[in-house]
Design brief:
There is one protein chain. This protein has two domains: about 5-190 and about 335-390, FAD/NAD(P)-binding domain, CATH 3.50.50; about 195-325, Elongation Factor Tu (Ef-tu), domain 3. Helices cover about 30% and strands about 25% of the residues. The protein contains 13 helices and 21 strands. Strands 1, 2, 7, 8, 9, 10 and 20 form a seven-stranded mixed β-sheet that branches. A hairpin with a 2-residue loop joins strand 8 and strand 9. The model has no long low-confidence stretch (mean pLDDT about 95). InterPro entries: BaiN-like, BaiN-like_dom_sf, FAD/NAD-bd_sf, RsdA/BaiN/AoA(So)-like_dom, RsdA/BaiN/AoA(So)_Rossmann. Pfam families: HI0933_like, HI0933_like_1st. Keywords: FAD, Flavoprotein. This is Oxidoreductase.
């Protein structure tokens, strides 16, 4: 049986990037995945255009029990490394708001380019292979699949987390990590919409979108908010969801950048409160936010208590989500392999020599905006280089 220098479990972003990094340095590498083709999440991310990095990426854009863990890998892999890769392969890209970089035509181009680079460096593919178990003995890892077993001197777990199961995601990476003695920070859905309590005050506004600020767990985010049939979504909600825990209230400002009190003063005393708020917000939202007792009052008729109540509804609307929409609607998995048992420089396990973890399987969650894919590339490269260095020792 052929013994590879490294077997990588997972043909996603971090796994393929690790593979091409290691193989380009002369290692024999095999990628194992149950998918029919590699890079499925890359291909469908960002509406098929793939937000592949962010020009403003820093360690502050990541959530982890160890907020310093990402610093080493990020320092050695900048957004311009990805831009250089795309340019070298003739893939056009564009910058969108908030310094997000997307493929101009199709994410398929990026996934195919990484796949081609891997193959060009001799990476062997074991696709449509279901991983049954992994064992470790006498310095070798054996990956038992529904086909033949595969052996290697090193093993990279790049299997992601259970978010987005319709794209093939499972918790297998976490189970393998636990098997080798690693602690798992409880996984949770992140970058996910909120489901609101039945009968909440703003029910029935599906389809309305407005700029909003959400405060959650001491963090504030300002982006678009979208009302859905079950609750709220949109970029600002996805950001907030990374910090939300069950039974935690959130505070929504529906007029960020405005001061409702000043708007009331400048409008004069004659207009109805309903009229003023309808100029500032979509009509149905304005009606839902307005206390019935104030809707048909003139501004001049508002007492101080009325004004404060109105300001609270518009700038400080407080509600406790019933839940998130769960792993099926989550873009990424929060939690994962505890980074205290992994080297931040090499991504190698501190428990088992030759065992590595990359990407989303780790307790590292990026905010919305290309940060999770950037972490996939950065952690994959760190592991790939470390593999090459270890084989040369």
């Amino acid at each position: 049986m052929k013994i590879f220098d490294a077997v990588i479990l997972g043909a996603g972003a971090s796994g393929m990037w690790c593979a091409h990094t290691a193989a380009s340095r002369g290692l024999s590498v095999c990628i194992v995945d149950h998918a029919k083709r590699p890079g499925k999440k890359i291909r469908i991310a960002g509406g098929g255009k793939c937000n592949f990095t962010n020009l403003e990426v820093t360690h502050a854009d990541y959530i982890s029990r160890n907020p310093h863990f990402v610093k080493s890998a990020l320092a050695r892999f900048s957004p311009w490394h990805m831009v250089e890769f795309l340019s070298a392969h003739g893939i056009d890209w564009e910058e969108r708001e908030h310094s997000q970089l997307f493929c101009l035509r199709s994410a398929d181009e990026l996934a195919a380019a990484i796949e081609d680079v891997c193959s060009a460096h001799g990476v062997e593919w074991r696709l449509r292979h279901t991983i049954a178990s992994v064992t470790h003995a006498d310095g070798l890892f054996t990956v038992h699949t529904d086909d033949a077993p595969i052996q290697s001197r090193n093993l990279v777990v790049a299997l992601g987390g259970p978010a987005w199961p319709q794209a093939g995601a499972t918790d297998l990476g976490h189970r393998i990590a636990k098997q080798f003695g690693h602690t798992i920070i409880a996984p949770y859905p992140a970058l996910v919409p909120f489901a609101m309590p039945k009968g909440w005050a703003l029910e029935g506004l599906s389809g309305i979108a407005v700029p909003a600020t959400i405060e959650c767990a001491g963090k504030r985010f300002t982006e678009n908010l979208l009302f859905t049939h079950t609750g709220i979504s949109g970029p600002v909600v996805l950001h907030a969801s990374c910090h939300w825990h069950k039974d935690m209230p959130i505070v929504i400002d529906f007029l960020p950048g405005h001061q409702l009190e000043q708007e009331l003063e400048h409008a004069g005393g004659k207009p109805l409160v309903r009229t003023l708020l309808g100029r500032l917000l979509p009509g149905r939202l304005a009606e839902a936010l307005l206390p019935e007792s104030l809707a048909d009052k003139q501004i001049a008729q508002l007492s101080r208590q009325d004004t404060e109540h109105l300001i609270q509804r518009v700038h400080g609307f407080t509600v406790t989500p019933a839940r998130t929409e769960g792993m099926k609607r989550a873009e990424v998995t929060g939690g994962g392999v505890d980074t205290s048992g992994v080297s931040s420089k090499t991504m190698e396990s501190s428990r088992i020599k030759g065992l590595y973890f990359t990407g989303e399987v780790l307790d590292v969650t990026g905010q919305l905006g290309g940060f999770n894919l950037h972490w996939a590339w950065a952690s994959g490269q760190a592991a790939g280089r470390a593999l090459a260095d270890s084989m040369q020792e």
